[in-house]
Amino acid sequence: MPAWRSISLWMDQLDEPLLPRPSLAQDLDLDVAIIGAGYTGLWTAYYLKRQAPQLNVAVIEAQTAGFGASGRNGGWLMGNLLGEDRLLAGLSPEQRRASFDLLHGIPDEVANVIEREGIDCDYRKGGVLYCAARYPEQEASLRQYLDSLYAQGLNQDDYRWLSPEQLAQQIRVAKPYGGIYAPHCATIQPAKLVRGLARAVERLGVRIYENSPVTHWQSGSLQTRQAAVRSRWIVPAVEGYSVTLPPLGRYQLPVQSLLVATEPLPESTWEEIGLSQGQAFSESSRQVTYGQRSMDNRLVFGARGGYQFASQLRHDFDLTRDEVELRRYLFGELFPQLKNVRITHSWGGNLGMSRHFKPHMLCDRRKGIALSGGYGGEGVGASNLGGRTLADLILQRDSQLLRQPWVLPERGLEALRAWEPEPCRWLGYNAIIRSFVHEDQTLANTASAPWRRRMASRIAGFMEGFMH
């Protein structure tokens, strides 16, 4: 039996036996074949069957539901989309506001589904706190970010500045310079959501085949080791695992994010820290940190991981001591009382990054291929939007979902920009990440000269711009 329970804290917490569903052992003729039983694949199946119950839909999964990023992430259900500012820049103010409202509604849409389907996944809509909490430059960058949001037509109902005193009412960090609060975010137990969603689509008549890696796919068909599938539509919903299904790997870079979880903390400690309403939180650095207080009172905390040469997937997520200790250092800077706390779980996962650093949802009707991906670490919420959008594209429904700049109707893979060949992508990615680490180390050092601090931020900012 595969060690699926050791994938993450979330999978370890499940109170169900992780028994595999049957493998695909005989040929199939389908209307829609979905590759991957993660969020994107299951949401697509869910909305297809809700709107067109007559469709013959099956999901073919290489491992088990939740094996990939859906069972490993930080549990942020965001009403946002990576790169939304650039995606929406060309719209009129009215169109842009409508698109923001669509995105902000993602957590509520998921809440409606989990209530309808009886999925208990520890959903709490407490919003998100972006904290300036380690060095003063974070306050300046956050205020600049808030100004850019307001320039796009958003307002204090969407994002509002918190003074250090106001921030302390929600989260108490060691060096509070202020922060931003946004209500459009919930926290969840990710594995409970993906496993519950799998059961929900099965009740709708979708068949899920596990332990069935797809060895080949093309327009109209796919192949596993034991069976062939013919289908009018193929939906490759593999995100960070796109490298396993050529040519998708040309357009999706698998990068890793790494997390740790503490032992359950006593209520007295949480009274010192806060986070009483299920808020997500991040400290504002290019290290891309993210955290939440789990339902069983652990601190779950993650930060940017890395990229392996030639887009190789990382399979071994037994984090090294250095990987664990970096995350301990980062959360210990925020909460000094936790510097020596026991860490019971550490894990990571592969996520997909598109070359434009923007998500895409496309539909090639001629070839019968529908694809959603490039979420860049924000896939818990974006995958719900992707599933709804792919369902409407396949069913040719006229909806607001399809009138968005991230949707590419009647477009195939050629609409996506491919990543540069190696070694360019490896050198570029690692140079960018090193500039971020250098900036963070320089700014966190109170002895750094002002000119060094300015130089480190300018270099990191230039490199971040180069990413896009």
Description:
By secondary structure, the chain is of the alpha/beta class. It folds into three domains: 188 residues, FAD/NAD(P)-binding domain, CATH 3.50.50; 167 residues, 2-Layer Sandwich (D-Amino Acid Oxidase, Chain A, domain 2); 44 residues. Helix content is 34%, strand content 22%. The protein is built from 13 helices and 19 strands. The strands form four sheets. Strands 5-6-4-13-14-15-12-16 form an eight-stranded mixed β-sheet, sandwiched between helices. A hairpin with a 4-residue loop joins strand 17 and strand 18. Helix 5 packs across helix 11. The chain is globular, with a radius of gyration of 22 Å.
Please describe the topology of this protein:
Elements: H1 9-13, E1 28-35, H2 39-51, E2 57-60, E3 76-78, H3 84-87, H4 93-104, H5 106-117, E4 128-132, H6 137-151, E5 160-162, H7 164-168, E6 178-182, E7 185-187, H8 190-203, E8 207-209, E9 214-218, E10 221-224, E11 228-236, E12 252-262, H9 267-273, E13 280-283, E14 290-293, E15 299-307, H10 321-334, E16 343-354, E17 360-364, E18 369-373, H11 379-395, E19 407-409, H12 424-444, H13 450-467
Parallel strand pairs: 1-2, 1-11, 2-8, 4-13, 17-19
Antiparallel strand pairs: 3-7, 4-6, 5-6, 9-10, 10-11, 12-15, 12-16, 13-14, 14-15, 17-18
Helix pairs in contact: 2-8, 2-11, 5-11, 12-13
Number of separate structural domains: 3
**Radius of gyration over alpha carbons?**
22 Å
β content, as a range?
Answer: 15-25%
Instruction: Compute the number of helices.
Output: 13
Secondary-structure-based class equals alpha/beta
Distance between the termini: 42 Å
Uncertain stretches: none
Helix content: 25-40%
Tell me the CATH architecture of the largest domain: 3-Layer(bba) Sandwich
Globally, the shape reads globular
Q: Spatial order of the strands in the main sheet?
A: 5-6-4-13-14-15-12-16
